Amino acid sequence: xxxxxxxxxxxxxxxxxxxxxxxxxxxxxxxxxxxxxxxxxxxxxxxxxxxxxxxxxxxxxxxxxxxxxxxxxxxxxxxxxxxxxxxxxxxxxxxxxxxxxxxxxxxxxxxxxxxxxxxxxxxxxxxxxxxxxxxxxxxxxxxxxxxxxxxxxxxxxxxxxxxxxxxxxxxxxxxxxxxxxxxxxxxxxxxxxxxxxxxxxxxxxxxxxxxxxxxxxxxxx
Length: 221
Known about the structure:
- There is one protein chain.
- The chain has helices spanning about 10-40, 45-75, 80-110, 120-145, 150-180, 185-215.
- It has a single domain (about 10-215), classed as Phosphate transport system protein phou homolog 2, domain 2 (Methane Monooxygenase Hydroxylase, Chain G, domain 1, Up-down Bundle).
- It starts with 7 loop residues before the first helix and ends in a 6-residue tail after the last helix.
- The chain is an all-alpha fold.
């Protein structure tokens, strides 16, 4: 149920916070998509663009935090309003970390030797990124619409990323034991894959915040 407040500017502040977080979500998603493309093509120029673009998400996070402080100071929110505002602060932090991990994926791309056959592990890593990108889209939609069932479904989908990550680690460890000359490339992919796995974890945190807004507690599966 949407609550309408007597003071119109109060609703405007809450709408602005939601809008700011939605913008952050779109920017983080764009970062993930570009990082995935850079990884798949081993495109150093695009990787550099992802790293530089991370600053925009940092600025949006700061703006969201300042808005939260202003709402708490001037509106003294209670009940679900307070949960909305507190969750907004947490969601901004989670989205900033997601964008950071996308930038970190890009930072490991220079370690990947163009002449080394890495198609299978790179494809597995990009599959993780694609799953995470779709999860992020869905959780931000769930947040915008207060869709708890969608949020819970996203929370459970992180298991798919974890499963791919576990198999990929085994693959890369086997390669490292057989091909010590290319340890740097394999290690870079391991770190990139770990970033994907962490993105999935942060998206589950977003799902928990959507649940918290409604029930005042985190979803624990």
